[in-house]
Amino acid sequence: MPDLSKYYSYKGEIPIQLPWEISWFDGSMQVFKTDNGTFTDSEIKAAGWTGPYDKPEIKDQYTQKIVWDPEELTWECVYISDEEFYEKLRVERNFRLLECDWTDLPNTPLSPEKKSEWMSYRQELRNLPGNVSQLPKPKDTKTWGWPTKPE
Length: 151
Known about the structure:
2 domains, alpha+beta, single chain, elongated, 151 residues
């Protein structure tokens, strides 16, 4: 009986949880079986599925990703490229800017001092990742942080 919480690969593709239905060719006829909780290991194999595979954990979401190797049928946790890292950084930065767009509206309820704090914070965000000298290399996120959000 398969472990339905695990991942299985169909003909080397990225593993997913087993589908509800599988089929395979058994000699002269096509065999269909439904109810993935009752599949046997030999039925899973006959239908072109391999596994189960445990997906590794990512220790640092900003610097690592999980990659499937269809040749070796293994997962691997790898460091992302500098380009991928800076793209993730931009996405996070854009989200943080969107989160505080309201502070830049003309009818915001903020005092002039608070509005100034928010303007500075937003400018610091907009400067990222342009100021590369302040940014970490992808394996060095512990030495760098986001600008401090005003209260």
